[in-house]
Please model this.
Amino acid sequence: MAPWTTQDIPDQQGRVALITGANSGIGLDAARALARHGAKVVLACRNRTKAETARDAIVSATTAADVEILDLDLSDLESVRIASKTFLAQHQRLDLLINNAGIMGVAKRTTVDGFESQLGTNHLGHFAFTANLIDTLLATEGSRVVNVSSLAHQMGFINFDNLQYDKRYSAWLAYGRSKLANLLFTYELQRRLTATGHNSTIAVAAHPGGSNTNLAHDVAGIGGFLMRFAEPLVQRTMQSSEMGSLPTLRAAIDTEANGGDYYGPDGFMEQQGHPVKVKSNKRSHDPAVARKLWDLSCELTQASWPALKS
Model:
């Protein structure tokens, strides 16, 4: 079978795709591909200047592209609330919600709402954003939620007694925890969609492998220094962000995708290659932990999911 590429994306005319963190990296490449195939693409970004630059780049490459900007700071639940309300006031449908934005390996800090920044931005912000949009997703035939995780989920553990890393903070373990949370959220969301009979909407996950993006620029400490020092060598061993976007795009588009599927590169150790279905670790499939994390995420963010209560 031929490898999956953007040539396999069917016509997206009439569909609306909302992508967080779409001003750079794999989010921008996914937005570019979907716009090129006719989708209305909404770039949900924290930095409007960078978002405008990204929008202009997409439109200049595809003159008929329909691209909008939505101001969204996932580290601020009030911004999440306003962005959700703004989107819903302007759009009657949502076909693809791609939760792509993230921070990685940063020094310890907290979000506006007091959460550890990586868990707060990568998981809790997206959890609340999805909850605010779920009714419109459910009302849109064939809609999908795509959560972008990482191979780093392998080093993540959910410790409810130290969820916010108030003790013994590790930038990389906190990142791994947030990426594990992305997968636990995906699988629990799919279980709830199935249990409530919402079979037209599915939740899918993806990871980009080793992709050359700017995500590492804010990495803290000696790890960040070494990554930046070795960047010329690393760039030669990593695939492009365009290739890294393919698992996300396949998760969003492939007609053979099922709820709960997980896509990543097909190469050695899933670092590079074309997108295929892959497997996440055992901890990501623990339903008891997923339920507890869901309930706690609702409590922390005040998110409400009435349509998914069985």
Residues 11-304 form a domain with the Rossmann fold fold (CATH 3.40.50.720).
